[in-house]
Structure formats: structure tokens, C-alpha cells
């Protein structure tokens, strides 16, 4: 099937029909989400996986990282028994479905598997999606990939129980910023109401996602905020900082524990754009950017090999901090 290059509105009905046909006629389905998965990526994938397994499908799920581990914040999600190491993932799946993946490189070690898949269904809401699937269920107007995942489950005629709803709700609240972002429409609240009706506990989910951290996080946060810089002359104002491997090692803090620091930095009134560089375990810098609306950070990050949304995007850099920031400043 020829991918639709528009991605400016709802997914064409014929694309949904083809995806439903492929999934319904397949006994074995391989699911994947992007590396360093967030609540939307992992929650959507596991929700669909649980629904498919309940329907009698043989489901395999994974994300392509050499250090394969689920972030602590997401270990409450049901369905993790579906997960396998990247090395145990089907080498050439008959049917592969990806979640929250805008470009094939974000599949990491599983990008080659996607290239060998007979059919590849892409479920995503990033405007920067390259249409790398044979069927692309891509709608940038969707508040989260979880919105499309719920739609897919309903179109397959499968029920949404509490376990499935938990993954979908985690994706919805993650990508809407707890319903604070402009993507929060009446439809988003209607979806939340449907999911809550299954009996899930929103307080428990919120506590797992945002209200827990080891003591070492506070120490690292202090060090990172101590080196924060404000550059009001860059664009509409830039605030940025970085966290090194040494920062984390001093308190035994894994990489995924520092993901939330960007949400502290971005509160700065004097800056439209907030940036944090996080050194991963391999020495690369994972750069997260946030905008209050004056700058389209997805365009900036796409120019640097990454992508994302207008107000939230990222990229990977193998250059030192100052060189990475120099390139970012020039684009801002």
C-alpha cells in the first residue's frame, strides 16, 4: 500500500480497513515501540498486545535496546510478560506493528526486523513520521498514540478491560501532560472517561508516573539545576542544562530516572525553549527540548537527526555539550 503523505487529518478509512484485515487474518503478530520507551509508546503497545492475546493471537513485543530494561516508572504497566529481548524477536515477522515510532531508526536494534517484515503497520501521531510502513495509521492531530491504539482495538472488535485500559490511560496522560496540553480536546476527556469506567485507579497511575523517585534523584537534580543557564537573547529565550553519567553514577541512578528533569527546567518564565542533555550509558547525549509555542522544536530536532512534536522533541548527539548546543543555538 502506498503511504499517505498528507498526515494532516484523520487516517483514511481504507488504511484502517487494511490494518484490521492484516491483524485479523494473522495468528502471530510482532509488536514494537521506540527505544527509551515512554508511557505512550509502551502503554499503547502493551494494551494492544493484551487485547490481541485475549483474542487468541500469539503476540511478541519488544523495543530495540541492547540494555533491555523497562523504565522503573513504567513497571506497573500490565502485559510485560509479552516482552522479549531484542535478540529473541522474530527476525523477519510476517506482520509487525510499531507504536509511537516516527522514523525507523527509533526502533534501534529492531529496525532491521522492520525492514524484513512482510507487512508493517505503523501506529503513530508524530507529524515527523516518514511513512515507513506498508500501512501507516498516522494522525498528528491525535493527542497520543494511545488514541489510535484504542481506535484500533475497537475496530478489531476487541474488548477493553482494566488491564488494557491501564496501558491506554498511561499513554493518554503522559502525552497530554496530565490533560494540560493544548491537545486535550473534549474527545480526549471522553476517552479518559471510557477508560476510567473499566475500574482503573487514576491516582495509582499518577503516583507511579510522577510522584515517586529514589533519594538520589534529588541529589542529581540539585547538581543539574546548579549548572542551568539562561540565554534570553536566543530565540524567545533559551534555558538549558545537562546531566552526565558521572552525576548519575554518584548516586546509582539509572538513565531513565532523569527523564523528568526537563519538566522542572521548562518552568522558567524568561525562556520559550528548554533543553536538557542527558548522557546515556554509552556516552551519547540524548537531547530533550520543550517549547511554550514560540518555536517549533520538532523542526529544529529534525534538522539534527531527531524529531517529535511542535512543543516537545529530541535528538541524539555524539558531540560534546558545547558543540551540541552551538548547533542547536544556530537553528533556534
Polypeptide structure, described:
There is one protein chain. α3 (111-116) links the parallel β3 (95-99) and β4 (119-124). The longest helix has 16 residues, at 39-54. The relative contact order is 0.11. The chain is an alpha/beta fold and 332 residues long. α2 runs parallel beside α4 (145-155), α2 runs antiparallel to α5 (162-175) and α5 (162-175) runs antiparallel to α6. It is 36% helix and 17% strand. It folds into 2 domains: 13-209, inorganic pyrophosphatase (n-terminal core) (Alpha-Beta Complex); 215-331, Diaminopimelate Epimerase, Chain A, domain 1 (Roll), CATH 3.10.310.
Global structural class:
alpha/beta
Name of the CATH first level of the largest domain? Alpha Beta
Whole-number average pLDDT?
94
CATH fold node name of the largest domain: inorganic pyrophosphatase (n-terminal core)
Identify the strand order in the major beta sheet.
6-7-8-9-11-10
Total domain units: 2
How far apart are the first and last residues' alpha carbons, in Å?
A: 37 Å
Strand segment tally: 11
Strand fraction: 15-25%
Q: What is the H level of CATH, i.e. the homologous superfamily of the largest domain?
A: inorganic pyrophosphatase (n-terminal core)
Please tell me what the overall shape is: globular
Low-confidence stretches: 1-8
Tally of contiguous helical segments: 12
Sketch the topology as an H/E string, one letter per element: HEHEEHEEHHHHHEEHHEEHEEH
Per CATH, the architecture of the largest domain is Alpha-Beta Complex
Helix content: 25-40%
Largest beta-sheet characterization: 6 strands, mixed
| Rg for CA atoms | 19 Å
Amino acid at each position: 500500500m502506498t503511504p499517505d503523505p498528507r498526515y494532516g487529518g484523520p487516517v483514511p478509512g481504507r488504511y484502517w480497513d487494511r490494518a484490521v484485515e492484516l491483524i485479523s487474518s494473522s495468528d502471530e503478530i510482532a509488536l514494537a515501540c521506540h527505544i527509551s520507551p515512554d508511557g505512550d509508546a509502551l502503554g499503547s503497545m502493551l494494551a494492544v498486545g493484551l487485547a490481541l492475546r485475549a483474542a487468541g493471537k500469539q503476540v511478541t513485543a519488544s523495543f530495540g535496546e541492547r540494555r533491555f530494561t523497562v523504565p522503573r516508572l513504567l513497571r506497573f504497566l500490565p502485559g510485560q510478560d509479552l516482552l522479549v529481548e531484542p535478540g529473541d524477536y522474530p527476525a523477519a515477522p510476517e506482520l509487525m506493528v510499531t507504536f509511537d515510532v516516527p522514523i525507523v531508526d527509533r526502533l534501534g536494534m529492531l529496525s532491521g526486523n522492520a525492514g524484513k517484515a512482510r507487512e508493517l503497520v505503523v501506529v503513530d501521531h508524530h507529524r515527523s513520521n516518514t511513512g515507513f510502513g506498508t500501512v501507516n495509521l498516522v494522525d498528528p492531530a491525535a493527542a497520543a498514540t494511545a488514541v489510535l491504539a484504542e481506535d484500533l482495538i475497537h475496530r478489531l472488535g476487541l474488548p477493553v478491560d482494566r488491564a488494557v485500559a491501564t496501558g491506554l490511560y498511561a499513554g493518554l496522560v503522559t502525552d497530554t501532560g496530565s490533560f494540560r496540553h493544548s491537545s486535550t480536546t473534549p474527545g480526549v476527556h471522553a476517552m479518559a472517561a471510557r477508560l476510567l469506567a473499566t475500574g482503573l485507579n487514576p491516582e495509582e497511575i499518577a503516583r507511579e508516573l510522577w510522584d515517586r523517585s529514589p533519594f538520589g534523584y534529588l541529589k542529581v537534580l540539585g547538581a543539574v539545576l546548579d549548572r542551568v543557564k539562561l540565554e534570553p537573547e536566543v530565540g524567545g529565550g533559551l534555558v538549558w542544562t545537562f546531566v552526565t553519567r558521572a552525576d548519575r553514577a554518584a548516586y546509582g541512578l539509572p538513565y531513565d530516572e532523569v527523564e523528568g528533569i526537563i519538566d522542572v527546567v521548562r518552568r522558567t518564565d524568561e525562556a520559550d525553549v528548554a533543553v536538557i542533555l542527558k548522557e546515556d550509558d554509552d556516552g551519547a547525549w540524548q537531547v530533550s527540548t520543550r517549547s511554550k509555542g514560540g518555536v517549533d522544536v520538532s523542526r529544529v530536532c529534525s534538522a539534527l537527526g531527531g524529531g517529535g512534536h511542535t512543543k516537545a522533541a529530541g535528538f541524539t548527539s555524539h558531540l560534546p555539550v558545547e558543540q551540541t548546543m552551538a548547533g542547536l543555538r544556530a537553528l533556534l
